[in-house]
Amino acid sequence: NAGVTQTPKFRILKIGQSMTLQCTQDMNHNYMYWYRQDPGMGLKLIYYSVGAGITDKGEVPNGYNVSRSTTEDFPLRLELAAPSQTSVYFCASGTESSYEQYFGPGTRLTVT
Amino acid sequence: GDSVTQMEGPVTLSEEAFLTINCTYTATGYPSLFWYVQYPGEGLQLLLKATKADDKGSNKGFEATYRKETTSFHLEKGSVQVSDSAVYFCAPGGSNYKLTFGKGTLLTVNP
Predict the structure, then answer these.
(1) H or E element: which one contains A19?
(2) Which of A72, B11, B30, B107 is the most buried (most CB within 10 A)?
């Protein structure tokens, strides 16, 4: 049981490039979340999903897109990367029965 | 919307000292309340929770009591260890099982 896995662990992008951050969970959770963590700012919710085929915006969705074609996968797409997207990105999953969220190890992204 | 105010860090303590990290929140109704912990280089993990007023959550020697009248959920530990060095986040629960995280409090415990 791997829990929540994220790839890659680290990535450096040039301004204007695009990439997809991968997130997979093997706990059959319906709820999945993407956060970004900036120093001293806590975690901000980017997008979330309550089940396959259903996604919704969080607090800071601009510059990102998501899809949820399966229960297991919830990729986050960055189009036209900007320096303001330099951050650590965390994926999490959870169930309807509790608020506990299970976090992946994170992806550290630098845009230069 | 929901918001959280956490004690500003960083907090530096000696081993076996008493720890308090304050947390107050604003939210609609009476949400479940959580403390998450992030160890260096890792993702967040649930430390403890309380689901209704006057509940006390506890885990690994940490405790927090849901105070409805003061909308607070302060984290305490009687005797901290070096291994408790981490960032601690307070979070009330919201709609669609979303969490609103505080800015986090960095705790460093010195031997």
Answers:
(1) strand A19-25
(2) B107
Burial (CB count within 10 angstroms: exposed 0-12, middle 13-18, buried 19+), residue B89: buried
Residues sharing a CB contact under 8 Å with residue A70, sequence separation 6 or more, in sequence order: A52
Task: Check residue B99 and report its DSSP letter.
Answer: B
Average pLDDT for B88-111: 91
Query: What's the token pair of residue B5?
Result: 């105010």
How close A9 comes to chain B (CA, Å)?
A: 11
Q: Return the CA Rg of chain B.
A: 13
pLDDT tens-digit series, residues B38-84: 999 889 999 999 999 999 999 999 999 999 999 999 999 999 999 99
Any idea how long chain B is? 111
Q: What is the pLDDT of residues A12-50, one digit of tens each?
A: 999 999 999 999 999 999 999 999 999 878 899 999 999
Other CB atoms within 10 A of residue B45 CB: 14
Distance CA A15, CA A110 (A): 10
Is B43 in contact with A103 (Cβ distance < 8 A)?
yes
Q: For tokens 């169930």, what's the residue?
A: A95
Name the residue of chain B whose CA is nearest to A90's CA: B43
Q: If you compute the radius of gyration of chain A from its CA atoms, what whole number of angstroms results?
A: 13
- Owner of token pair 């120093």: A39
